[in-house]
């Protein structure tokens, strides 16, 4: 497995309103006499699915100097390296917006093995640990950022903010000021037993976030307060994670209908994210009610860490994506929620999640296998599906890493 210090993240450009990133054929791809530089790597013959380009076709992907230089049928160029993707699915590198990779230095490598080329740690650390965690994010091979937990001690077994004094606005502001390049939002875990007062903790999280024009991510499910009351505090760009958490206080009413306050939140620009996780965050009956109501996730994420490979409910990002592929969504819709949609949530990723020419060459090669596969929710309930995605190769910054 690659050394996590081998690579340096590169950012450039911005996403267009349609999600396709409008890269010019930059000078870095061409020599001064306008002759194209040699192609370093070709991912050849795969089914390329890139929702940002509305592309689903057999194509070759050429990479030059760490950037996508061409996506075409039968690229004739010789390349220093070729990945044979025949019979496989080629997508932009996956962006996992809810992880806890920051809790263990092997976390980013676990992500790479699953095709993850960009990630956000969703509140493992509060103000007291943020300096160390920010340094860790800067050293990660992929593009990586942190959400600061409003609880200054981070995730605690007894509850992050069961002692309300831990929801320390001044401490959070100071930690963000020291790490503005890394902290991209504020996390508030609102489940009963995690916080003494979910409304007040969310108010303090918003107070911190407004100081820096950052989003808040709320951890929902089994809250003391009804969801509409909490959602009313959310602004455009905020994120609701664990959206398939079962009652009490899920996204649906007793009849399985999406709550009006949930629909209103989406209309004003609040994102809804999956964060599959291991405990209390996804149950099949609630999943079915929400999907059948047509309230699909904006983004799919794992809530993964280094032990996820041993957790049947997670395993890896492609396994989590496969749940939606089998139970309600098409492959291109699923890919969009782990690539171009995810790229819109945080500015760091706005030149990612695409294979457009000039984009950083982050690519995930996946196998789509047919058969009978079991998928597990967070409550030990299983169901069978006929398709499952498996990781095959990951290209990061133009270099094959798995």
Task: Describe the structure in brief.
The relative contact order is 0.18. The strands form 2 sheets. Strands 1, 2, 3, 4, 5, 13, 14 and 15 form an 8-stranded mixed β-sheet that branches. A 7-stranded parallel β-sheet has the order 6-7-8-9-10-11-12. The chain folds into 2 domains: 107 residues, Urease, subunit C, domain 1, CATH 2.30.40.10; 256 residues, Metal-dependent hydrolases (TIM Barrel, Alpha-Beta Barrel), CATH 3.20.20.140.
Give helix and strand order, one letter per element, not per position.
Answer: EEEEEEHEHEHEHEHEHEHHHHEEE
- Assigned CATH superfamily of the largest domain: Metal-dependent hydrolases
CATH architecture label name of the largest domain: Alpha-Beta Barrel
Helical content, roughly?
10-25%
Please name the CATH topology of the largest domain. TIM Barrel
Distance between the termini: 7 Å
CATH class of the largest domain: Alpha Beta
**What is the global morphology?**
globular
Report the average pLDDT across residues: 91
Counted beta strands = 15
Question: How would you describe this structure in keywords?
Answer:
7-stranded parallel β-sheet; TIM Barrel; Urease, subunit C, domain 1; alpha/beta; 402 residues; 8-stranded mixed β-sheet; 15 strands; 10 helices
Question: Can you walk through the features of this model?
Answer:
The structure is a single chain. With 402 residues, the chain is α/β, with parallel strands linked by helices. The protein has helices at residues 107-113, 130-139, 169-178, 198-212, 227-231, 260-267, 284-292, 317-326, 331-338, 340-343, and strands spanning 39-50, 55-64, 67-72, 79-84, 89-92, 94-99, 116-122, 143-149, 183-189, 216-219, 239-241, 271-272, 363-376, 382-396, 399-400. The longest helix has 15 residues, at 198-212. The N and C termini lie close together (7 Å). Residues 1-33 have low confidence and may be disordered.
